[in-house]
Write a structure and sequence with these properties.
- It is a single chain.
- By secondary structure, this protein is α/β, with parallel strands linked by helices.
- It has nine helices and ten strands.
- It has a six-stranded mixed beta sheet with strand order 6-7-8-3-9-10, sandwiched between helices. Strands 2-1-4-5 form a four-stranded antiparallel beta sheet, covered by helices on one side.
- Helix 3 runs parallel beside helix 6.
- The protein is globular, with a radius of gyration of 17 Å.
- The relative contact order is 0.19.
Length: 219
């Protein structure tokens, strides 16, 4: 099992944001968390990636408990997050951003750079361009490419603005408000409402569910 989240409770001060959430991600899967804005999706990702810590419950990654591990140590273990809003280095070139993504490796591998350029040919065309001058979609590609440079075993994407995924072979946990898009690519999915998981199933099953259609797909 790649990731197991078991009965986590997360607070912002006195606010009980995540209330007993449990789910799992297996190797090679794309798993989506869907839900309305403010449902707690980003909080779940921050808690897995070590930016926040649960008050109770457990999280294990590749069999090791990580609920109270610092974020930078988790990157070294193979957990990478592309945060909402991309957070690329705007004053650096595309290539320099990719080099920064490899900081957990002993050296920057040309093969890794070429792999990113193969997935995102537009980044190769803009290799020497300053990242802040890229379009929003290109910045999203760069954020994903930079995350791929750390050889993640699990890639967590928070509200990616891309309609396609170029991370073939990588296990992905995807947080997305656009339920239709998220369910179309998901092997399995979970619906988060007000800090609780209310539904789970395959992406296809949830896309066909009357409750999901009514609440999230405008059906």
């Amino acid at each position: 099992m790649m990731l197991k989240v078991d009965d986590i409770h997360v607070y912002y001060g006195q606010i009980h944001a995540i209330k007993g959430v449990s789910f799992e991600v297996h190797e090679g899967e794309i798993v989506s968390l869907i839900g309305a804005n403010g449902a707690g999706k980003s909080t779940v990702l921050k808690t897995i990636s070590g930016l926040m810590h649960p008050k109770s419950g457990s999280i294990s990654f590749l069999g090791d408990p990580i609920a109270h591990t610092e974020a930078y140590k988790l990157v070294n273990r193979g957990l990478a997050q592309v945060p909402e809003g991309r957070r690329i280095f705007l004053q650096m070139t595309v290539r320099e951003n990719l080099d920064m993504g490899a900081y957990t490796q002993k050296e920057v591998s040309d093969a890794d750079i070429e792999d990113v350029f193969r997935r995102f040919p537009r980044l190769k065309e803009r290799e020497k361009q300053i990242a802040g001058t890229l379009s929003g979609g290109e910045q999203q590609m760069l954020a994903m490419g930079r995350a791929m440079m750390s050889h993640p075993k699990l890639l967590m994407l928070d509200e990616p603005s891309m309609g396609e995924f170029h991370a073939a072979g990588t296990t992905i946990l995807l947080v997305e408000q656009n339920a239709g898009k998220a369910l179309a690519v998901a092997d399995r999915a979970y619906v988060l409402e007000q800090g609780r998981i209310t539904l789970s199933g395959t992406g296809a099953d949830l896309a066909a569910s009357d409750a999901v259609k009514k609440a999230y797909l405008g059906g």
